[in-house]
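Hey, I'm writing a tutorial for new members on how sequence and structure tokens pair up, and I'd like a real worked example in the thread rather than a made-up one. If someone can provide the structure for the chain below, I'll link this post from the tutorial.
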Amino acid sequence: MANIIVQLSKYIIIVLIAAYTFSCFSIFTREYEDEEKRVLVRQDVLMFLLQFTAFFAMFFYTKDIRILFLYGALFVVLLAVILLYNLIYPNVSRLVVNNMCMLITAGMIMITRLSADNKSPYGTAIRQLVFVVLGIVFGLIVPVLIRKLTFLEKWTYVYAGVGGAALLAVAVFAQTSGGAKLGFELLGFNVQPSEFVKILFVFFVAASLNHSKEFKNVVVTTAIAATHVLILVVSTDLGAALILFVVYLVMLYVATRQPLYAAAGLGAGVLAAVAGYHLFSHIRVRVEAWQDPIGTYTGSGYQVAQSLFAIGMGGWFGSGLFQGQPDSIPVAETDFIFSAITEEMGVIYALCIILICVSCYVMFLNIAMELHNSFYKLVALGLGTCYIFQVFLQVGGVTKFIPSTGMTLPFVSYGGSSMLSTMIMFGIIQGLYILREDEEEKLEREKRKKERKSRNGMGRTAPRKTAKSGPRFEEVPKQRARKKERTR
């Protein structure tokens, strides 16, 4: 009976997440605010139904009451997130909030399933839920800071100094784990500074390029950015190094509109990659594992090979929760969680996860394009690029599209530093979205003020219609739905 419930649940879950993903993009076509609100409420219903289906399927299979406690805690936390954002920030982007909650749900489902087989059952899932709660606290505080702090664009070299010092401390003092120096252990938790330095790096580049786009300043900015990347390469944190490199190129090109800068940056990146391959043995190991994971199965290719086996075994619809062997993949909760999801939830489900991430990126770009402040415009662009490129590195690494870089899937993979930094990133985006709303409201007030002055100056050119002459044609009935002015 339990197996039947699990097999039935996987099809229900696929239908629910497919409907949710479709709504992520259909919402951009809605012309009225009330239509948009109905779609957003429908997304919440689909997400909670998916959550209920997955956790109760796992409970029926394991008969472990702790799964129900985890489900209840997750339900309360995510419901509180939705309500608090709507209460504290009425102008918040509801689509971004919903997508954030859906990705957290997808991650918690798989982490709960994987942690059931650990020596301390569900310990990993409980810690991840704690990280979610801490991240939400930061996510709710950051938007108001972005709105109130008006001097952020003046701290150019403060961002560079703090970020560079944090990376240098890791390179010098951190212990090597898994072939790389990533962070420090603090109060029993592993803190990875590079996750937070990515945000500081975006603010540094945005502030510097907003200050001046002259060649001299571009050279100085490039030199500081290259120093960040080189420190990460020395620490063998290749994923973070790639993210900073790509983010800088994108921001530089958008700020200066100089194709020559982008071409020079790409050329320098290719040369650096070739030099790194010959200078650093760990880079050669990862490239060899990428080229032939089966041939190096007993060595460096074991992780990638197991990942490919898991994806192949899952097929379109997956094997079902607790019906596969995702725990045979090394570090499945972090670096290879996408493979674990694909094996038991299916390729369709995994593709929907990717599309949800893409819809977040589309909203980030939408916010960046509509902001009038060039500094905040670059910040939104940089954070969006940082987010989507990290998704690309994670998915590309586990599917053998590119060499594995050991990056986490934001909101989905287990990890405190990843969860907190992504929450802060999304909080900044929400703050920028609120700033955009403030800008539009200010422009609208100025427009109405000019119209009133214009009418007062011109005087009346025609007599006002009386009740006997019929209703005024410019009046709109209150019952009519108000057309939306922007996508939330």
